[in-house]
Design goal:
The chain has two domains: about 1-20 and about 270-395, no CATH class; about 25-265, TolB, C-terminal domain (Neuraminidase, 6 Propeller), CATH 2.120.10. The protein contains one helix and 32 strands. With about 425 residues, the chain is mainly β. The longest helix is centred in the middle third of the chain and has 4 residues, at about 200-205.
Length: about 425
């Protein structure tokens, strides 16, 4: 995408910022954690390795911590972790295999959510456990105490629900069974309140699910490939509406998407100051640089002094208007910070000195927040230029779902 601005005689036409998606979608394939908020370039190619396979994900509604469940021993046991979605560091919370129901040995959760107990006010884990011989709906305290369980279906039933979501307004849990029906359960005791009139395909039935902002969501691989579809489901009819899909790099497409959680707001990315390459304004302190003009020259745009964020090109002088065009091409993994005046340019007749003040630059504009954006600006011809941009780095998310505020509580696995 490209925009063109004209600053001849300080006159210009600006472009509006891209509108961010309202939610970030986290999902796992094997031990890889991906996140998509509608703005990242596809295919997604920067997953975080957690070091263990994940069958279920969920964000704590108060602390923002990302919880994950990993199966052990061919689904005969499982462990809950809190994980840092930036680094992949994990902290074990408790093992579901420590509890043995009268109907069979411990198993692995295929989906779970957080529910606030209406009596105690404490948050608990509610979810579906694929136990040996039977499938169960279970409630745990966050210290690993089994508070309640009930059997779903009969022996060797297919009643586990890999895609599920908790609706706090109605205090119910929605779950897609292996047969493709959508069940509505009373969150307090797991009793069935409704079964959908229609069924979903088995790809959705083995998906990840979450309830967010009034909708029951599912993420799944329709063909076990590298395409992941995200859809909303009507719990009453079982009708499915595909909202969008993404492609991924890094897993190989040999298994389905399993863990899935939705978090409000777009992903946050670290912001950096970027300058066109050249001589420093001052040799002390500020590393800002300016560029000596040369017709048709192309120089690097560095963010944070060392990160290659893109390139800046200077056109030949237009002899009629005595102007040049400056084009800023961002690399695919960078975008302009969304907000006003994210690209600033100043021209000079002689080499400048002292600390620059980009906020006082003569030619300021707001560029799109799309990744890999290209912008062209027309400015008066001169001998030197300071080209300053505020950019974000796709490879450096800041605090999504915990991040730097993540506080381990128990012995770390990694």
């Amino acid at each position: 995408m490209k925009t063109t601005l004209c600053f001849a005689a300080a006159l210009f036409v600006g472009a509006a910022s891209a509108v961010a998606q309202p939610a970030s979608h986290y999902f796992t394939q094997g031990d890889l954690l991906y996140v998509y908020d509608g703005t990242q370039p596809l295919p997604l190619s920067n997953p975080v390795s957690l070091g263990f396979p994940v069958t279920a994900l969920e964000f704590h509604p108060v602390t923002g911590e990302l919880w994950a469940h990993s199966p052990n021993n061919s689904f005969q046991s499982g462990t809950f972790y809190t994980v840092d979605p930036i680094t992949g560091a994990s902290t074990m919370q408790f093992e579901s295999s420590n509890v043995v129901t009268p109907l069979g040995q411990g198993g692995a959760f295929v989906s779970f959510d957080f529910r606030q107990n209406p009596v105690s006010g404490e948050y608990e884990i509610v979810g579906f456990n694929d136990r040996f011989l039977v499938d169960t709906y279970e409630i745990y305290s966050l210290d690993g105490t089994l508070l309640y369980w009930t059997q779903l279906g009969g022996i060797f039933s297919q009643s586990n629900h890999p895609a599920s979501g908790y609706d706090a307004v109605n205090d119910v849990v929605y779950g897609v069974s292996s047969e493709g029906y959508v069940y509505t359960y009373d969150a307090a005791d797991g009793s069935i309140l409704n079964q959908s009139t229609g069924t979903l395909n088995t790809a959705v039935a083995s998906a990840g699910g979450d309830y967010f902002d009034g909708d029951f969501w599912a993420s799944y691989n329709p063909t076990r490939g590298d395409t992941v579809e995200f859809a909303t489901i009507d719990p009453l009819s079982g009708a499915l509406t595909v909202q969008f899909d993404v492609t991924t790099i890094g897993y190989g497409g040999t298994d389905t998407t399993q863990g899935y959680a939705v978090r409000p707001g777009p992903v946050c990315y670290e912001s950096e100051t970027a300058w066109s390459d050249g001589d420093r304004y001052t040799q002390r302190g500020n590393w800002a640089t300016y560029t000596e003009y040369s017709a048709n020259a192309r120089v690097a745009l560095y963010a944070g002094q060392t990160l290659l964020a893109g390139y800046v090109e200077f056109s030949a002088v237009d002899p009629i208007n005595n102007t040049i065009e400056i084009t800023v091409d961002l690399e695919p993994g960078f975008r302009f910070v969304q907000g006003s005046d994210n690209l600033k340019i100043q021209d000079y007749a002689s080499p400048p000195s002292g600390n620059p003040s980009p906020g006082q630059f003569a030619y300021k504009s707001e560029q799109s927040g799309d990744w890999g954006y290209s912008a062209t600006v027309t400015v008066p011809a001169n001998n030197y230029y300071g080209v300053h941009a505020d950019v974000q780095d796709l490879s450096r998310p800041c605090n999504p779902g915990g991040g730097a505020d993540f506080a381990p509580k128990k012995k770390s696995k990694k």
